[in-house]
Amino acid sequence: QVQLVESGGGLVQTGGSLRLSCAASGILVAFNAMGWYRQAPGKQRELVATITSSGSTNYADSVKGRFTISRNNAKNSVYLQMNSLKPEDTAVYFCNYRANWGQGTQVTVSS
Questions:
Q1: Are strands 77-82 and 91-97 parallel, antiparallel or unpaired?
Q2: Mean pLDDT along residues 51-56
Q3: What is the pLDDT of residues 34-53, one digit of tens each?
Q4: For the chain, is the Cβ count within 10 Å smaller at the N or the C terminus?
Q5: Spatial distance between the Cα atoms of 59 and 76, rounded to a whole number of angstroms
């Protein structure tokens, strides 16, 4: 059974940084593609970033140059480093593996 547990969200001012963590169980992140998605109030869930088993990364245009996805195989975890945060980054952020989702972590950026 796959479980994904996100943490690290919070309230931050515009221009600030946060680091989200996703602890995985039931799969090995080293051998699987993982992703981060977000959903703002009243909007559809959207892709933020992905990392493949080979380490290739992909980002939504809106976060390129500001966000970095990474993983720690020893901790079986995936991370999302978010810098230069903007109010439009406010959303619930979800970790994803295929059809599996975590419970989400709230990120709020104040202007």
A1: unpaired
A2: 96
A3: 999 999 999 999 999 999 99
A4: N
A5: 21
- DSSP notation for the chain: --EEEEE--EEEETT--EEEEEEEESS-GGGS-EEEEEE-TTS--EEEEEE-TT--EEE-TTTTTTEEEEEETTTTEEEEEE-S--GGG-EEEEEEETTEE---EEEEEE-
Q: Using 50, 70 and 90 to split pLDDT, how confident is the model at 66?
A: very high
Nearest to 90 by CA among 56, 42, 52, 23: 42
For residue 56, give Cα distances in angstroms to 6, 33, 46.
Answer: 21, 9, 19
Nearest Cα neighbor of 78 from 43, 105, 60 is 105
Edge-first strand listing for the sheet containing 18-25: 3-7, 18-25, 77-82, 67-72
* Span 17-38, average pLDDT: 97
Residue with structure tokens 């699987």?
Answer: 32
Exposure letters 44-72 (e unless 16+ CB within 10 A, then b): eeeebbbbeeeeeeebeeebeeebbbebe
